[in-house]
Structure formats: C-alpha cells, structure tokens
Design goal:
With 323 residues, the protein is of the alpha/beta class. It has 12 helices and 12 strands. Bound molecules: manganese (II) ion (MN).
C-alpha cells in the first residue's frame, strides 16, 4: 500500500462520523479480528461505529468481543457516512442484506482486503495481495494514523494473521507477517489465548462428525487430491453445525501425499459448498473460477449443484489439466 493510499484512508476515516464496518459471512479469524480490531481503533478516534456480520461468531472465536456487533441493518442509524468492507473483494461475500442496502447507499465506500481477483470497481479499494491477512493492512492503517495499540486490539489483529497463515505454516507466510506478528506481541497480544481458543476447541460431537468425514475420504494419486465431504444428515446425526467442520480441507493438506485438500459440505439437497486448500501446487483461484467461485492462490472455494461423485471426478480432471 502506498503512502498516498494510507493518506486517503486516513482522511476518509477522519472526515466520517457514523461508520459501518462489514466483513464476509461465515466469518473466520481474519474477518472478525480485522473488522473488530478496526472498530476498536476507530472508537479511540471517537467515531460512532458498527460492525456487521450476517452470521454468528463461531465458538472458537468467541474471545473476540465487540459491543456493537450487529447481524441486521435495522439496528444502524440512517446517516452512515462511510462503509468499510474488510477481508472481502466481492459485495456478494457480505450477504444479500448488505447488497440490497448498497443499492441506495450514496456515501463513501472503502474496501480493505488481500484476496486476488477483486470483483469490485471501487476507487477506494485498498487491496494488497502480498499481505498474508487483512489484519496486516489494518495494522498499517492504525500505525499510520498513530492510533494507540492496546493488548485487546493487538490480540484481535494477531488472530487474523495466525488463522490466515495457519500459524505461519501456509506458503502465504512472509517476513512481513512475521514482523507484524512480532510487533503485535510487543503490544501485548495474547498468543496463548489465541492458540488455546483456535486449537483446543474440539468437542466429542466434532470427533463424531470427523469420523463420518474421514470415512468418506478418498485420495486421488493422479491429481494428488485428498477429498471428502459431509451431508446435512451427517451434521444432524452428530448434532453439529458447519463450524464443526471448519479447517477440514487444511487438515487433509497436512498429510504428506496430499497437494490439494478438498472439503465439501452440503448446503441444500445436492447443493454443495467446496473449499480448496493447497501450498502452491496449482493456482486454486483459477481452478475455483472455472466453477464460478474465487479466492486466493492457496485457498479458494465455489458452490456446486449435482452428484458428489461427479464433482470429485470433475475436480480431479480439471486439476490434472491445470498442472
Ligand atoms: Mn483474510
């Protein structure tokens, strides 16, 4: 991000009063850490802020607290003068309520993100794909605006970096993410709280769900792809939700032979949400694009309608073609 852009961000923020911060649905550690971290920083500037997310905070991130977190736009005043989208580059990722709201919104919009292939045309989009997490961009803004960092704010931002890099294991980890993580630790970020929350969150019901997912697991040696899925019935029988299958694609990837981890969950009858994870084997955002989805080079996804076995074969073929 150039200084010019940081200047522009600062002046847009300083000239606004009622600010709505929006992150993507199915929020992860970066979406919540970045949006709520930004909220806390802007509160220090005495801005009247709201954080919108369509979905509830998953249990493993419940340590990220925000007093003005809303899931419904009827709770905000009608004089919002700036909307800041965080960790997304396609308004569809925020949900249909926001998309509808945007149709009549005439004031300023800002997008702070690190995903590839933006689907927005905003003159105020500040996107740096070299950043491992949006939390890094939020750190740069806070640093540039000389807003005081504190322990809670630092913990929020470090959560974004840790979850988006899978604790510095993903290939998106770079010297910048390590450098900023180190600065956040100096500001008092609570690394043990983050680690115990995101890694010790497994319940027995989750093990029961994992048993079902692992029994569906197949490895394809030609595409080097580890693939599995779970159905709505699996969630129901184990009394679990989609949050309990979070991280499965990455879990497959952490096995020696697997170059691409694919986890698929049913969202409606024969309608599926596909998550792809890799470490540079092929460009997954390109692969997801073929199926009408998107994402990063190493983390992408799409929706699919049809038979699971057709999807598996189709994916394996496309992966072999991309290689
Ligand atoms: Mn992110």
């Amino acid at each position: 991000m150039s200084i010019f852009n940081l200047e522009k961000i600062s002046s847009l923020i300083l000239n606004s009063h009622n600010i709505l911060i929006v992150s993507h649905y199915d929020p992860d550690g970066d979406a919540l850490g970045s949006s709520i971290g930004l909220y806390k920083a802007l509160n220090k500037l005495k801005k009247n802020c709201y954080v919108y997310n369509r979905d509830k905070i998953p249990d493993y991130l419940s340590f990220i607290k925000c007093s003005n977190l809303i899931d419904c736009l009827s709770k905000i005043p009608n004089d919002i003068d700036l909307i800041i989208f965080v960790d997304l580059n396609d308004f569809e990722r925020a949900g249909s309520e926001i998309e509808k709201y945007m149709l009549s919104f005439k004031n300023n919009i800002m997008v702070i993100d690190h995903h590839q292939n933006p689907k927005i045309d905003s003159k105020n989009a500040f996107i740096e794909t070299s950043c491992s997490a949006t939390a890094i961009l939020i750190f740069k803004i806070i640093d540039h605006m000389q807003i005081d960092m504190d322990k809670e704010l630092a913990t929020n931002l470090l959560t974004g970096i840790i979850t988006d890099t899978s604790s510095f294991k993903n290939s998106n980890t770079n010297s910048q993410s390590l450098d900023i993580a180190s600065k956040l630790l100096d500001f008092g970020a609570d690394l043990s709280l983050i680690n115990s929350s995101i890694y010790n969150d497994k319940s027995i019901k989750r093990i029961n769900l994992e048993k079902k997912i692992l029994s569906n697991f197949l490895f394809d040696n030609n595409s080097k792809t580890g693939f599995s899925y779970c159905t709505l019935q699996d969630y129901e029988e184990t009394n679990t939700t989609k949050e309990d299958s979070e991280g499965m694609a990455n879990y497959f990837l952490h096995h020696m032979e697997v170059m691409i981890g694919v986890f698929v969950r049913e969202i409606d009858d024969k309608s599926w949400k596909v998550s792809l994870r890799s470490n540079g084997y092929i460009d997954l955002s390109k692969l997801a694009n073929i199926f009408g989805g998107g994402g990063h080079k190493n983390a992408a996804g799409f929706k699919y309608s049809g038979e699971i076995e057709d999807l598996r074969k189709d994916l394996n073929n496309k992966i072999i073609n991309e290689k």
